[in-house]
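ok here's Aldehyde dehydrogenase, seq below lol
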Amino acid sequence: MSRLAVLKTYKLYIGGKFPRSESGRVYEVLSASGDFLANAAKASRKDARDAVVAARSALSGWSKATGYNRGQVLYRIAELLEGRRAQFIDEIVSAEGVSAAAAAAQVDEAIDRWIWYAGWADKYVQVAGNANAVSGPFFNLSVPEPTGVVAVIAPQDSSLVGLVSAVAPALVAGNTVVVVASERLPLSAISLSEVLVTSDVPGGVVNILTGSPAEIAPWLASHADVNALDLVGAGSLDWVSLQIAAAETLMRVFAPENGADAAAPSLARVTQFTETKTVWHTKSLL
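and the structure came out like this:
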C-alpha cells in the first residue's frame, strides 16, 4: 500500500522561530521547468517589523560576544551544512534546473564561504583598526564596531551562495540581520534557517523573510530601527526611492558599484558593516 508524501511547509524565520506570515499569504515556487515545488510564505510589512524587533533584541548579546566565539558559531554553521549537503543539492537541482554536479559545487562554495568568513571573526579588528600616530603624551586607537541591525536584499539569482555571501560578512562584525531571500529561489534560504536554528546562532541574530523584495524593501529602508541597508541583490528595485527613504533616518546604504560582484568574499564586505570608534588615552608620565 502506497503512502502519502509528507510535504514540507516553508515558513518565515523570525527570532529563532518559524511563523507563517501574519497576512496568511503564500505564493507558488516553481522549478526551472515551471513545475510546482512548494508554497512559500509571502512576508508582509508586519513580518518585516517583527523581524527588526527580533534583530534589535539579539544585537546586544551577539555584538558583545568575542570575535573568537562568533568565529566558532559561524564554523558550526558550515559543519551542519556539510551534514545536510545532499538536501541542499536536491533543492538547488529542482529550483535552478542545473546538474547535480553544478548544485554540489554551489553547496560546497557556500560551505567554504562560511568557513572563510568564520576565520576573519577574530582577525578583522587587527586589520581594520590601528594605533594612530599623534603628537603628545597620548595613545590614540581606532577600533571597528558593529553598525547594528542590517537589512539585506539577497541576490535574486542564487539559491544559496548569494544568501550566504550577503549574510555572513555582516555577522562576522557582530551585526544582526534581516534578509529578504530570493523571491524565485527561496527554498534553500528556509532550509538554511533550519540549519541556523539547530546551530549555536542565538535566535534573532539572523531573520529570513521570503516573498517580494519590491514589497518588503521600502518598509525596511524607512524603518527607524534599522541601521544599515545592503542592496547587494536589489538590482531590479528602485534604488533611488530606497536611498531617499533610508536618508530620512540617516541609515547607511551599501550598493554595488558599476555592476561589481559585491557578493564575492571580501574583507571589505565585513568592514563596510562597521563603525570606527577612536579612543584617546593619556600615557603614564611615570
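fwiw The chain has ten helices and ten strands. kinda neat tbh
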